[in-house]
């Protein structure tokens, strides 16, 4: 299924740096959306799964829709205030030459039966934004599909990249 997704991300300066910030809303209780972003079985429907014991402060996360050969990465749980806030950090290689720290912040609020997810990723290297931004648009739209009875498999990354790259390139420029 081919669609024309819209770039929704924006830059936001926070105390520890610049972030790409995206929001999605759900007509669902906050606890349900929290489960969708934290429970391995629910995560596996739209992005990946984690293993390990979060009480130890780290988990291994495996992306399930990135193609072959993607190795699980370790994420440190910096903050977990269920059902409102999850903060994670991974030190990874963005590509073969570029080390990267992925600091993710997921905040949930609920009002009048609608839960808003505000997703943010630190952007130490502005050049990464043109690739990372479309990727998060894709995955968050898969989350919306999974949680609203849609088919996440019907969402095609080719509709997001390179089509949305210019929006994120402009944010970082």
UniProtKB/TrEMBL annotation:
Question: InterPro entries under this entry?
Answer: ASHA1/2-like_C, START-like_dom_sf
Q: Return the Gene3D superfamilies for the record.
A: 3.30.530.20
Q: Which residues form the Activator of Hsp90 ATPase homologue 1/2-like C-terminal domain?
A: 27-145
The protein's matches in Pfam families, at most eight in alphabetical order, are given as:
AHSA1 (PF08327)
CDD domains, per this entry?
SRPBCC_CalC_Aha1-like_6
Q: What family does the database annotate?
A: Belongs to the AHA1 family.
Identification of the protein by name:
Activator of Hsp90 ATPase homologue 1/2-like C-terminal domain-containing protein
